Write the structure tokens for this entry.
Amino acid sequence: MSHLETDLAAAPVPEVAHLSLGDLMFALKAGMTDFRKAPQFGLFFSAVYVLGGIVLIWLGAGTVEWTFAMTLGFPLVAPFAAVGLYDVSRRIEHGGAMDWYKILSVVKSEKDRQVPWMGATILIYFLFWSFLAHMIFALFMGLSVMRNLSTSYEVFLTPNGLTMIGVELGVGAVLAFILFSLTVTSLPHLLDKEVDFVTAMLLSLQVVKENFWVMMVWAMLVAGLTFIAMLPLFLGLLVVMPVLGHATWHLYKRALV
């Protein structure tokens, strides 16, 4: 049995490294290299994100169905898709077999480890985020005369509407960065080592704290590239998501030593 399929022993707590912008460039280049070496796996796992986005469009953004699909479905599925990308990068790094059965078996086996707890944490976070967004909307727009938002956006151009948009964007940015800080190294760490999800998240937070500006740049790169990839009916995600997934693995390897 190869190194990649053996049971992982309890791992010692790693040290947080000091990162530079050069480490981000290295991670991106390594991510692109991994994607070129095994594009079939990258396309397969990124299809989860693309199909999810198309389904959300089909349900209709802003509807109750869209909200529940996003907050209940995506956070539970996305971590397992990410694990698949991390495992591909790990196998390329160690010269492991690029075998569909073995890689999908690793993804499946994660259900008995810590990734489901991570998914549950992300789910609760998304639900809180959704609740807070609705509460902010109600606080600013609850007494406004509402029209059909699909045909008129005039209500958002009022002073209350513009203030509400500003607050929503500000709060959303803060919550997004907190979630990024909790997960940027924790998900690959959970795959790579035998560690509980709370420790993995705390270490991820420490990585961001010790390398705040570098990780801020990484967060903006991820957000910007993802936004651009979503514009052509989410199809850009077929390439951007696997590259970022592989890159995240390499950044994790440099961040925790």
About this structure: The chain has ten helices and no strands. Residues 64-94 form the longest helix (31 residues). The CA atoms of residues 16 and 207 lie 6 Å apart. The radius of gyration is 20 Å.
